[in-house]
Inverse folding.
């Protein structure tokens, strides 16, 4: 390798930092608390589920800079080159006063024990900057990744409303200094690969996708790190050594969303948040479901590619993507392989991978105008929970018949997969409650679900069958006949 | 002496913010892990057992000791005092276990230069065990006649057997009630700094600094005077830091003295949830007799609890379950029995309500059963059984209730929430038999205030006025977010009639106020508020005497008014007055003390007045369920709650909202799940689901019963607020139950167990369909 850089460069609040010689598993939270003595950011769970460690990360995009909330506990330092990290210590009001978001929290009695509070303030701050006049649902969505055990959340939601009415983010420091930061971050970029060695540990930050391909060939056993919402836990919970690591989240080529006539192609590093507007426009049936993937921080970090590549049987997106006949493109050096997503998952813990390859793109064909499509996620808690089971149903209902039936489940077997027996029982048959009820027998033929802490096998099987019925009622009588209507109640209460 | 209309900022009955609010929001409030670390700080980390029941046959630490930056391994052999931290003296709670009684029990600790090394090293021990059979579930403990961890209690009045025999109607049933993890956002942590002689300073995230002090002394075999425990604030407690902090503090102190370096210990969230106790799960059996009009005539109920491996606080917890099984209802002939069973699970402990919620929920299930049996609205049955004012007002523990306001609360709430009209609309909605069903329920709360361990009902405070007029406040209570410090400072501001910002609240410290009780049982402001007021009274008495002498006036001419002291016709600023008092050598410091009067409890006889007074409240919840999947949402909750004459209405509303949502979590999505090997598998927020902002009721109306005043002489006639609102969530479970019952036109009680996860709802719906 001709030219490599041996350090990362980033901005922490208002300090430009060069950091060399650190390990793959060094998290942003440990760095800011232990090395920088910024103690305002807290560790509540070390797995990205409580939000006490929420900070903002500004990253360069085609449109300048995007500030997003992330969980510092599972974010690795290796992913932060040319980023702006903003912690609670950066929030200030005029003349030493509190920042308007902080003041609103004080006014509304939004803190009790105070431990979760800095994380909530950061989430509210990001919401206020991106959505100055949020609805109740938007506030709840922004707070999905933050747990509070004291207040019952009511005063925190009120604080979000208060700051939206009292203050304008235009005058906020992150808006005033935006251009300066963009320049600063741009100056930190060069066309070099970064390689950081620390003892036996190796971090590679490739300079482009071709370089990523080379790095994977050089280090076929390397851990690919994109959003780190899963790999983060390998370190914080299982204390696994993940070196050598290849960080890919900064590669702009992998962030492309290509909207073509036949479907959408997304790069492996497109986050759930990045996808939001595309989902809304081209797959509106998935919008509500999309907002229930993780919490806001996890949606900002986590990638659709990672959700597939980690091979989990309970990932949220694979059932929908399988039902939609999505394909994935894997690349090894300069070779590309494309396969239907359903074939990517071989069995629990095993995917169709070759040494040194990586997932590059996902292609999702559009629904046909005559297709009916729905996605259902069943979990113990509605938001920010891992599904007990997840189901996507696509079919063409015409002339009272069901055709091209495509149904996929997650949480029902060792991999996300089609319910092929169930599909057969529906395919070409009459669109009626009777057929649907008969097809429930297909679920037992397709799956032998397990019992675990998320649900019993009995519940999984029963709910899977009933989801078929819900689909029928929803499509014939309307959504509110078969699903709880949270939004309506809340917005009318305002 | 005080003015009737106070002009000061932040006095009692006002709404000053939490004293640390501005620090919470800016991240500058210091928790133990944020304290600047002493040079050479070492870190300890527990090694946990990998079996559920058995004995250790060998431990090999060679791989640990070979690791860089490891300082050493602590085992039971390092303990000079007692390898025991049982809070009730039963010697059943080792620091390091040798006989393993639950999966994840601490057996040793690694001390290293960094926390990461200590944590990683703790996984490298090679421990061999002899495994024995285990029991994790209370039903198995009953059927296999497992031992009790502590003495059970029986409450008895009249002749229940005869009463049941004579009843017009009679039914039996049982109910499972799940436990709950505290999920304080700040996990357990302690840091010990060694000093000269036996001295050690311990920073502990604890609700009970005095007990941490005693336990450190017990384990290290040193007197209490050598140990100072300091608690500025906790990031949440909820009962989880009443006894469970002892373990961490003891090990930090042990290591600090052994290596003569400061030592910090902070478990990862998963290990915190695995190795520390939770709310008790219960199995309640009931046999109730009732009249045709729904009046209970006799009740025989047994409350069996999963206590875990040791007694811890299971005795008083199961006692309190019995004390609250009556809730607001009069039982003419009654016998209530507790069965605190041992199980091979982590020892369960205090948690907001302390057994009261489980007892009360059992009592409410009985009401529900009667309502469904008679085809009536459960609210009618409730009203028919409310305690009377002058008759029908004796509890199963023979305390006479003389402050009953539940009738008025329920009546007001029923009207303000439009209960009757909404219930009618829901019955109409459900009659369409759609996929979505609704339910509504109004449930009351009566909660007894005082520690049932009578000697705990005492408190101390230390107040200094410095010669610049600034005031230093210290008391025995601990701040865990409940706003206790703010309330006590308000009391002090009111006593001296000075602005709140003149008062500095300082960290709870065993060197300042000794022999304190746990900040628990909702008692914090009742006890410490009175102690602080007592300290202020002592200083004021001296100041008034000084004013009288120097100005030659009688005592009635001296008053504290609006940051001044009025002496005859002269009005002197508080600062100037204090300075002159100092110059005249008036003592400006006092230690205050308080003990709750008129309470007594004879556990043997099951008789007494364990509670000084009762706090009341009621809630109405409306829910929707999806009968295809069991998913649900809380559409609306209305609450009317009694806090007497509130010291700080804003803080009290925060306690009510927060308590309700926490209670709702307990009854809905928070599920503890053990696998067949005895491992708890819900030990992190990824698997254990506490409520989110989007789970709180879609519409949430909370009001204080602003007409209420405590009939007893509590601090400014306020009432305790920490625990009672938790049980307002009972209405959620019963509303869910009603929605399920619609499947059979409300002819059958669904007997919905808690927590009512979507799975339990769906399986209950299926049972109704099948039945």
């Amino acid at each position: 390798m001709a030219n490599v850089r041996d350090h990362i460069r980033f901005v922490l609040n208002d300090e430009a930092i060069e950091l060399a010689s650190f390990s793959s598993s060094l998290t942003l939270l440990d760095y800011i608390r232990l090395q920088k003595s910024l103690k305002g950011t807290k560790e509540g769970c070390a797995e990205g589920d409580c939000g006490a460690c929420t900070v903002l990360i500004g990253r360069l995009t085609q449109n300048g800079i995007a500030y997003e909330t992330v969980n510092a506990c599972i974010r690795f330092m290796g992913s932060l080159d040319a980023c702006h990290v903003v912690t609670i210590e950066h929030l200030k009001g005029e003349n030493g006063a509190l920042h308007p978001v902080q003041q609103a929290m004080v006014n509304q009695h939004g803190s009790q024990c105070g431990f979760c509070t800095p994380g909530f303030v950061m989430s509210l701050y990001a919401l206020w900057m991106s959505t100055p006049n949020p609805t109740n649902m938007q506030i709840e969505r922004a707070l999905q990744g933050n747990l509070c055990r004291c207040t019952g959340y009511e005063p925190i939601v009120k604080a979000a409303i208060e700051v939206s009415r009292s203050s304008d983010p235009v005058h906020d420091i992150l808006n005033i200094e935006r251009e300066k930061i963009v320049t600063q971050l741009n100056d930190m970029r060069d066309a070099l690969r970064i390689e950081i060695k620390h003892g036996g540990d190796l971090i590679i930050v490739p300079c482009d996708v071709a370089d990523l391909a080379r790095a994977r060939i050089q280090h076929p056993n390397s851990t690919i790190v994109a959003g780190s919402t899963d790999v983060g836990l390998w370190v914080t919970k299982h204390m696994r050594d993940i070196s050598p690591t290849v960080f890919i989240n900064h590669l702009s080529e992998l962030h492309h969303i290509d909207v073509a006539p036949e479907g959408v192609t997304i790069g492996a590093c497109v986050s759930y948040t990045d996808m939001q507007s595309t989902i809304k426009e081209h797959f509106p049936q998935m919008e509500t479901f999309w907002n229930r993937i993780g919490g806001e921080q996890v949606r900002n970090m986590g990638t659709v590619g990672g959700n597939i590549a980690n091979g989990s049987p309970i990932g949220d997106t694979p059932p929908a993507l399988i039902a939609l006949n999505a394909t994935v493109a894997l690349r090894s050096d300069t070779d590309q392989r494309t396969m239907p997503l359903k074939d990517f998952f071989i069995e629990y813990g095993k995917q169709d991978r070759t040494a040194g390859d990586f997932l590059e793109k996902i292609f999702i064909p559009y629904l046909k105008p005559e297709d009916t499509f729905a996605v259902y996620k069943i979990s113990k808690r509605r938001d920010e929970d891992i599904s007990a089971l997840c189901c996507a149903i696509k079919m063409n209902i015409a002339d009272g018949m069901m055709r091209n039936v495509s149904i996929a489940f997650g949480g029902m077997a060792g991999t996300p997969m089609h319910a092929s027996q169930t599909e057969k029982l529906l395919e070409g048959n009459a669109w009626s409650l009777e057929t649907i009820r008969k097809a429930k027998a297909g679920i037992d033929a397709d799956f032998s679900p397990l019992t675990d802490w998320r649900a019993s096998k009995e519940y999984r099987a029963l709910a899977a069958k009933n989801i078929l019925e819900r689909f029928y009622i929803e499509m014939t009588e309307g959504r509110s006949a078969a699903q709880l209507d949270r939004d309506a109640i809340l917005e009318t209460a305002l | 002496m005080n003015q009737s209309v106070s002009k000061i900022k932040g006095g009692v009955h006002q709404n000053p913010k939490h004293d640390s609010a501005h620090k919470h929001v800016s991240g500058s409030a210091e928790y133990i892990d944020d304290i600047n670390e002493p040079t050479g700080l070492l870190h300890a980390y527990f090694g946990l057992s990998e079996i559920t029941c058995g004995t250790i046959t060998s431990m090999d630490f060679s791989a640990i000791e070979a690791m860089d930056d490891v300082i050493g391994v602590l085992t039971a052999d390092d303990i000079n005092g007692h390898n025991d931290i049982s809070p009730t003296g039963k010697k059943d709670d080792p620091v390091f276990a040798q006989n393993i009684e639950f999966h994840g029990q601490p057996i040793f600790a690694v001390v290293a230069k960094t926390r990461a090394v200590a944590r990683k090293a703790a996984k490298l021990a090679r421990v061999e065990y002899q495994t024995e059979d285990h029991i994790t579930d209370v039903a198995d403990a009953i059927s296999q006649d497992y031992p009790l961890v502590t003495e059970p209690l029986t409450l008895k009045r009249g002749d229940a057997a005869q009463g049941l025999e004579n009843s017009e109607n009679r039914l039996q049933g049982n109910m499972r009630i799940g436990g709950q993890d505290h999920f304080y956002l700040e996990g357990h942590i302690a840091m010990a700094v060694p000093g000269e002689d036996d001295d050690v300073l311990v920073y502990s995230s604890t609700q009970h600094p005095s007990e941490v002090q005693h336990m450190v002394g017990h384990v290290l075999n040193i007197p209490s005077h050598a140990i100072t425990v300091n608690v500025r604030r906790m990031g949440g407690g909820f009962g989880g830091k009443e006894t469970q902090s002892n373990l961490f503090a003891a090990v930090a102190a042990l290591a600090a003295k052994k290596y003569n370096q400061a030592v910090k210990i902070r478990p990862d969230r998963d290990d915190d949830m695995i190795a520390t106790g939770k709310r008790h799960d219960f199995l309640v059996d009931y046999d109730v007799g009732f009249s045709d009009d729904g009046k209970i005539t006799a009740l025989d109920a047994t409350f069996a609890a999963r206590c875990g491996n040791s007694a811890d606080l299971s005795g008083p917890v199961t006692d309190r379950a019995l004390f609250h099984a009556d809730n607001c209802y009069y039982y003419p002939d009654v016998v209530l029995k507790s069965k605190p069973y041992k199980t091979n699970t982590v020892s369960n402990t205090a948690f907001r309500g302390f057994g009261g919620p489980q007892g009360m929920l059992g009592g409410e299930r009985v009401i529900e059963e009667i309502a469904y049996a008679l085809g009536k609205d459960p609210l009618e049955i409730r009203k028919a059984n409310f305690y009377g004012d002058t008759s029908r007002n004796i509890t199963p523990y023979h305390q006479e209730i003389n402050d009953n306001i539940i009738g008025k609360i329920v009546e007001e709430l029923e009207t303000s929430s439009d209960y009757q009209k909404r219930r009618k609309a829901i019955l109409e909605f459900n009659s369409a038999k759609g996929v979505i069903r609704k339910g509504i329920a109004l449930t009351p709360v009566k909660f007894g205030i005082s520690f049932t361990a009578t000697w705990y009902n005492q408190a101390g405070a230390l107040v200094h006025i410095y010669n610049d007029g600034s005031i230093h406040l210290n008391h025995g209570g601990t701040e865990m977010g409940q706003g206790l410090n703010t309330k006590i400072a308000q009391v002090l501001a009111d006593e001296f009639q000075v602005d709140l910002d003149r008062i500095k609240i300082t960290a709870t410290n065993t060197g300042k106020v000794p022999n304190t009780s746990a900040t628990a049982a909702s008692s914090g402001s009742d006890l410490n508020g009175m102690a602080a007021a007592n300290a202020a009274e002592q200083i004021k008495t001296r100041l008034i005497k000084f004013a009288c002498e120097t100005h030659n006036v009688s005592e009635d001419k001296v008053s504290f008014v609006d940051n001044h002291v009025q002496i005859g016709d002269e009005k002197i600023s508080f600062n100037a007055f204090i300075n002159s008092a100092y110059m005249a050598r008036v003592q400006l410091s006092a230690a205050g003390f308080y003990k709750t009067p008129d309470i007594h409890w004879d556990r043997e006889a099951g008789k007494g007045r364990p509670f000084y007074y009762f706090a009341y409240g009621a809630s109405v919840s409306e829910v929707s369920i999806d009968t295809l999947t069991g998913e649900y949402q809380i559409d609306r909750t209305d609450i009317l709650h009694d806090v007497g004459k509130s010291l700080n209405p804003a803080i009290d509303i925060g306690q009510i909202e927060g308590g309700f949502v926490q209670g709702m979590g307990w009854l809905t999505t928070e599920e503890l799940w053990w696998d067949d090997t005895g491992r708890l598998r819900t030990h992190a927020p990824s698997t254990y689901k506490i409520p989110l902002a989007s789970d709180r009721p879609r519409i949430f109306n909370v009001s204080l019963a602003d007409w209420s005043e405590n009939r007893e002489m509590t601090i400014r006639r306020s009432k305790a607020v920490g625990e009672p609102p938790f049980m307002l969530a009972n209405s959620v479970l019963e509303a869910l139950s009603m929605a399920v019952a619609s499947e059979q036109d409300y002819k059958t009680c669904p007997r919905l167990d808690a927590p009512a996860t979507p799975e339990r709802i769906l399986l209950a719906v299926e049972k109704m369909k099948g039945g």
Q: What stands out?
A: The CA atoms of residues 443 and 731 of chain B lie 5 Å apart. The mean pLDDT of chain B is 97.
